[in-house]
TrEMBL record:
Pfam families the UniProt entry points to: SPX
PROSITE patterns in the record: SPX (PS51382)
Origin species: Salix koriyanagi
InterPro entries cross-referenced by the UniProt entry: SPX_dom, SPX_prot
GO BP term, example: cellular response to phosphate starvation
Lineage, broadest ranks: Eukaryota, Viridiplantae, Streptophyta, Embryophyta, Tracheophyta
Name of the featured protein: SPX DOMAIN-CONTAINING PROTEIN 3
PANTHER family: SPX DOMAIN-CONTAINING PROTEIN 3
Length: 189
């Protein structure tokens, strides 16, 4: 709960920073300066992308933990013949560490903020994709890719399926994600 409050505060701070830069350095601002405006907006965009990555990692961490717990309980029930999994999983689904609705909402708001405040032209998109491959070894970006690859692997079809199973993870840009590990000395598999 405390971490969610921090995320809400950081999200609001980012929105306020954007507005302050627009009001001060933007074309209609009190002290217009194109160079300073672009530099500040670049910094804000980087902060938003890093913030977004942290939240995506938190969501994936929650999903991985749930999947691991479900597999442990399934194996326990199989070996003991018990029925511990169903009541235990139902209680877990109500716990704060599993409920990621607010984080998911903030992730979508960050994506919306990036799309609306920082519109990207087609040429810039291709340039950013090439640059993202180059910086794949950096912190949160690399960890996010590793988390997505792990989630994809975990969510593959299972030999057993129940209503507690997570759906398969379909990544639309999977080739781009895989290609971003080109410069990594340790492959993400």
């Amino acid at each position: 709960m405390e971490q969610e409050e921090d995320y809400i505060i950081r999200h609001e701070e980012l929105k306020q920073r954007i507005q302050k830069v627009i009001d001060t350095l933007g074309p209609s601002g009190s002290q217009p300066s194109e160079a300073a405006y672009k530099e500040e907006m670049r910094k804000i965009r980087k902060n938003i992308v890093n913030f977004h990555g942290e939240m995506v990692l938190l969501e994936n961490y929650s999903n991985i933990n749930y999947t691991g717990l479900a597999k442990i309980l399934k194996k326990f029930d199989k070996r003991t013949g018990g029925l511990l999994r169903l009541p235990f999983i139902q209680k877990v689904l109500e716990q704060p560490f599993f409920i990621t609705d607010l984080v998911s909402k903030l992730v979508k708001q960050c994506e919306y903020m990036i799309d609306t405040v920082f519109p990207v032209e087609e040429e810039e998109i291709m340039k950013e994709r090439r640059e993202s491959i180059t910086v794949a070894g950096e912190g949160i970006f690399r960890n996010t890719i590793a988390a997505l690859m792990t989630m994809r692997e975990i969510r593959r079809g299972s030999s057993t399926h129940s209503h507690f199973s997570l759906p398969p993870l379909n990544l639309p840009d999977f080739d781009l994600i895989q290609s971003s590990q080109l410069n990594s000395p340790i492959p993400i598999v």
